[in-house]
User: Which sequence fits this backbone?
C-alpha cells in the first residue's frame, strides 16, 4: 500500500508520519510537495500535523488553497481514503471535506500531553482494528483543537455514527468530547490526536498502530474483493 | 479604487479565550468598568473597480477565505478612494 504525505510550508509531523508508515508498518510512503497537482498511483493520503503557512489567518485556512488540495479533494471524491492529523484535520474542515471547525482551546493554552480516548465507532476503515468502545492513549499537541459544530451538524454526526474518537477527559472544550470524526461516505477521517507518535513501545504507546492497521486491512480487502 | 475595511469576529456562541484574557488583563490594570472584550481580525483591502459589484465580491472573499462562517461573522465598510 502506497501513501502520500503532503508537505506544506510549516508542516512538522510529516517525517514522523513517514517514519511510522515506512519503518514501523513497512509500507511505501512519499512526502509530496504542496505544489503537487496529482495523486495518481497512491492508495491513501495523510495530511500531517504542523503549522502550515504559519497558521496565518486561521489554522489550515491557507493550506486549503494549495494546489495539492485540489488533488486531495478529487482523491476523496473518488472514494479513496484521506486522513488528516491535527493541522491536517484543521485543513480538512477548512476545505469543507469534513464538517465543523477547530477553534482555540478553551484554556487558551497549547496542550501537549497524552490523552485518553474512546473508540466510539470501530466500524470504519480507520478504526476496525480496535475493539468496540476500546480505550486508547494517544498524544495531543495543539492550541486550536477545540472542535466546534452547530447543533444540527452534531445531530447529523451522531445519527450517522461519524464520531470515531472521543476524549475521556475533554482537554480543550470540544463539542461532545469529539477528538476525531469521519465524513458520511466513510473515507475521510480527521482527528486531533497523533497516532503516528504512538507506534513504538519506546514512544510510550503503540495504540496508534490500530488506525494504520485498519486502513491497511481495508485496502487489502478492497484489492482482493 | 475602493478601500474596504473588514471586521471578522467570533459568533456569540463561540468562545473567545483571547478576548477573555485581554478582558482579565484590563481588569488587573484597574479598568474595572470594562464589561467585555471581543478580539477579532481587521483587514484593509484596496480594490480596483471592475465590472463586478464591490459588495458581492467582498462577501465572496469573506465567505471563501477571510472568515470561517462556521464560527465567525463579518461586517465591512466600503469607501471610494482616489486611484493610487
Assistant:
Amino acid at each position: 500500500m502506497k501513501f502520500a504525505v503532503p508537505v506544506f510550508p510549516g508542516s512538522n509531523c510529516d517525517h514522523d508520519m513517514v517514519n511510522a508508515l515506512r519503518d514501523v508498518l513497512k509500507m511505501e510512503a512519499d512526502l509530496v510537495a504542496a505544489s503537487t497537482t496529482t495523486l495518481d498511483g497512491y492508495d491513501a493520503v495523510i495530511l500531517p500535523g504542523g503549522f502550515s503557512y504559519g497558521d496565518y489567518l486561521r489554522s489550515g485556512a491557507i493550506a486549503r488553497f494549495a494546489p495539492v488540495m485540489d488533488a486531495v479533494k478529487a482523491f476523496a471524491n473518488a472514494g479513496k481514503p484521506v486522513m488528516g492529523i491535527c493541522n491536517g484535520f484543521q485543513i480538512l474542515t477548512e476545505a469543507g471535506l469534513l464538517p465543523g471547525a477547530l477553534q482555540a482551546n478553551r484554556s487558551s493554552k497549547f496542550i501537549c500531553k497524552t490523552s485518553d480516548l474512546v473508540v466510539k465507532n470501530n466500524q470504519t476503515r480507520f478504526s476496525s482494528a480496535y475493539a468496540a468502545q476500546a480505550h486508547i492513549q494517544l498524544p495531543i499537541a495543539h492550541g486550536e483543537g477545540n472542535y466546534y459544530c452547530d447543533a444540527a451538524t452534531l445531530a447529523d454526526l451522531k445519527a450517522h455514527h461519524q464520531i470515531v474518537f472521543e476524549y475521556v477527559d475533554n482537554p480543550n472544550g470540544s463539542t461532545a468530547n469529539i477528538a476525531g470524526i469521519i465524513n458520511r461516505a466513510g473515507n475521510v477521517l480527521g482527528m486531533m490526536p497523533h497516532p503516528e507518535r504512538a507506534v513504538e513501545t519506546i514512544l510510550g504507546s503503540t495504540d496508534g498502530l490500530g488506525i494504520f492497521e485498519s486502513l491497511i486491512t481495508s485496502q487489502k480487502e478492497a484489492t482482493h474483493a | 479604487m475602493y478601500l474596504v475595511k473588514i471586521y471578522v469576529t467570533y459568533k456569540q456562541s463561540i468562545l473567545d479565550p483571547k478576548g477573555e484574557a485581554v478582558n482579565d488583563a484590563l481588569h488587573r490594570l484597574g479598568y474595572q468598568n470594562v464589561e467585555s472584550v471581543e478580539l477579532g481580525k481587521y483587514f484593509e483591502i484596496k480594490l480596483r473597480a471592475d465590472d463586478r459589484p464591490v459588495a458581492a465580491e467582498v462577501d465572496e472573499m469573506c465567505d471563501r477565505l477571510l472568515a470561517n462562517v462556521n464560527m465567525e461573522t463579518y461586517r465591512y465598510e466600503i469607501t471610494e478612494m482616489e486611484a493610487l
The helical segments of chain A are 14-24, 67-77, 87-94, 151-159, 209-224. The longest strand of chain A covers residues 111-119. Residues 6 and 32 of chain A are 5 Å apart (CA to CA). Chain A touches chain B through 19 residues (CB under 8 Å).
